[in-house]
């Protein structure tokens, strides 16, 4: 399977067709109001796609439409969405379609929404259209606040509540970045710079 460097995009629409025996990794940052369409098609078999979407919502309205279409055998697709909601509204519409004539495909979708302020609004439910039994699809959806015990632990180290939140969220971002095979310091630096501006 051919390897490619991580593809980094910010605040844009994406339409990608993944060829046979390709390994593709996408990192998408969304931190501005708008409607974004992310379409990924795997149609020739034996490809692997990793998609990570990081959303930072502050006084904005964001709608994310992400669609994965699989029409090949032994396709692998793993999608993670991490959403920091400070203010405003985020609507996430995720859709999967697997055609019935192909088997052996695996798909995962994990969405984690973290409320930073009480008035943030988040909505969205995965839609699955799987036309055969010999495919695996898993999804999870979490909507949480930062745990009080985690804040207490860091506060006991003489850190303010704001600094404690910053550290906890930064750890989550770093864990996502570390999960990529390609370690790109320039991308990491840009994401952390935007995060610091967002969290202030």
TrEMBL record:
Domain spans labelled SUF system FeS cluster assembly SufBD core: 95-168
Alphabetical list of Pfam families matching this protein: SUFBD_core
Domain of life (superkingdom): Bacteria
One BP term from GO: iron-sulfur cluster assembly
The protein, known as: SUF system FeS cluster assembly SufBD core domain-containing protein
Species name: uncultured bacterium (gcode 4)
């Amino acid at each position: 399977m051919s390897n490619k460097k991580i593809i980094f995009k910010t605040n844009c629409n994406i339409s990608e067709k993944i060829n046979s025996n390709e390994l593709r990794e996408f990192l998408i940052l969304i931190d501005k109001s708008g409607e974004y369409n992310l379409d990924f098609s795997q149609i020739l078999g034996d490809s692997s796609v990793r998609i990570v979407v990081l959303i930072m919502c502050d006084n904005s309205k964001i709608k994310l439409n992400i669609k994965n279409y699989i029409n090949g055998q032994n396709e692998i697709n793993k999608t993670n969405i991490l959403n920091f909601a400070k203010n405003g509204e985020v609507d996430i519409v995720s859709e999967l379609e697997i055609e019935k004539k192909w088997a052996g495909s695996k798909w995962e979708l994990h969405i984690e929404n973290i409320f930073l302020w009480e008035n943030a609004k988040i909505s969205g439910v995965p839609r699955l259209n799987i036309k055969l039994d010999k495919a695996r699809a898993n999804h999870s959806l979490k909507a949480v606040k930062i745990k009080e015990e985690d804040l207490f632990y860091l506060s006991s180290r003489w850190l303010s509540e704001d600094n404690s939140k910053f550290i906890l969220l930064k750890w989550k971002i770093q864990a996502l970045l570390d999960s990529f095979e390609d370690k790109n310091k320039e991308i990491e630096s840009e994401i952390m710079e935007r995060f610091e501006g967002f969290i202030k």
